[in-house]
């Protein structure tokens, strides 16, 4: 790139000299020849005659615009090689604005000089005058060969700028893996990363365009693609301003977001005015590419305007949802699954997905990290999972379709309690805790039953019930709630079994614990059930000795408690 930029400077010097030579020729060095070339020298009559618009039959402003527009696209050359600039934030705006100003002055100066010194037609000739003679500039210049060299220099400079910029943009698209089919072109040269493979593609396209032999055919196509690019860029800046993103801080003092929106609409309108069929095809292809990228969701971190819009819309809808009271007609299942292991989460998620499929409910994952919050390793793990969304043990297909809430707890039971209180976003809270009875049976190896049948209320010392109100001796009936199911307070799980509270032996060897949480035992399971009920949630128990493959479509019903 450095060599090409240096060579561009040589071409720039040649181009400047050729422009000077041309203007010197129009100021009297060339002899007037109105009957031959149509050159009259600077004349008020010639200028006034040529001032108003007049087109050859079959041409109009739009057709001329489509051919001329590629001449002003070189102003974006600096942005195309932004990765190779030392200070892009300074070079791109200053270079682009300077290019616009200088190019505008040169183009207007050439147009006025030709309009003030050359006739549109010379008699009945179809080869002379501004309308027909495409080589009029070198013919009226001080030295024609130098102007011709300048034209070649301008063409070569524009071509090299595109030839350097386009492969880099194409390579960046391939490196981001937006289209996996084009991944082959992402690789660059080993020593400097030059997109050699992308160069080959651009070369083939350019060579095919040259074979047409008519620039007036290629120019409208180029204009069409540039216009949709500028339309997207202008709309992007408009959305950045509309969302007031902290990262969007335009330094141009005269910038206005409504001008950006108008420019985007103007570009689209010009596309359809030039060739509505080509414009329609271009827009459809662009929309299909956009929808494909949105559907595949490539793992890239760009900080796009779309993400900013999503954030604003999500915040507004969450605030509005808080004012909506729950109603039976609109209430949907919102399942809460606890991350015990990858296998557990996968099977519970598959089950929730089946039940959510018809009613479009939501699934939330309670991600419990066992450890001490003061332990840096534990907090680092929490940051990776909760802040950076790096859940290595949860399949991406689940994290993309569920809300994950992480917490640090000293035990799995404490983690369940924390998740039950904090899960959800705003007013969107889970309403069904999904448990698998297999978790209970796998963590209990032996229960000794030695006493006559006595109904027993299972109430863990760590449950919300105990935290809410500790038993007192003020009421003997309340103190005996363990022995009388009817006297048990509301919210307590009551089961009838042959268990004597003084003669229970429950052994849960650590090696029998399931999943990645060795601290999860049967009492934690019972605590989780009771705490879910005490927080006002529903509880769904899935019975079965083995995990079922919920991805298989079945007829009939599934037994769920």
Description:
- The chain is an alpha/beta fold.
- The protein contains 20 helices and nine strands.
- The chain has helices spanning 2-29, 44-51, 61-68, 77-80, 88-117, 136-140, 144-175, 196-210, 215-243, 257-274, 276-296, 305-321, 342-359, 376-387, 396-399, 412-422, 437-443, 464-468, 476-479, 522-534; strands at 334-338, 362-370, 403-409, 432-436, 446-447, 454-457, 494-497, 506-507, 538-542.
- A five-stranded parallel sheet has the order 3-2-1-4-9, with helices on both faces.
- Strand 1, helix 13 (342-359) and strand 2 (362-370) form a beta-alpha-beta unit.
How many DSSP helices? 20
Counting helices, strands and paired strands, the structural category is alpha/beta
- List the secondary-structure elements in sequence, H or E: HHHHHHHHHHHHEHEHHEHEHEEHHEEHE
Lateral arrangement of strands in the main beta sheet:
3-2-1-4-9
Helix content class: 40-55%
Unreliable segments of 5+ consecutive residues: 445-518
Q: How far apart lie the N and C ends?
A: 68 Å
Characterize the main sheet: 5 strands, parallel
Mean pLDDT: 79
Q: Which word captures the global form? A: elongated
Report the β-strand fraction as a percent range: 5-15%
Q: Could you tell me the radius of gyration in angstroms?
A: 37 Å
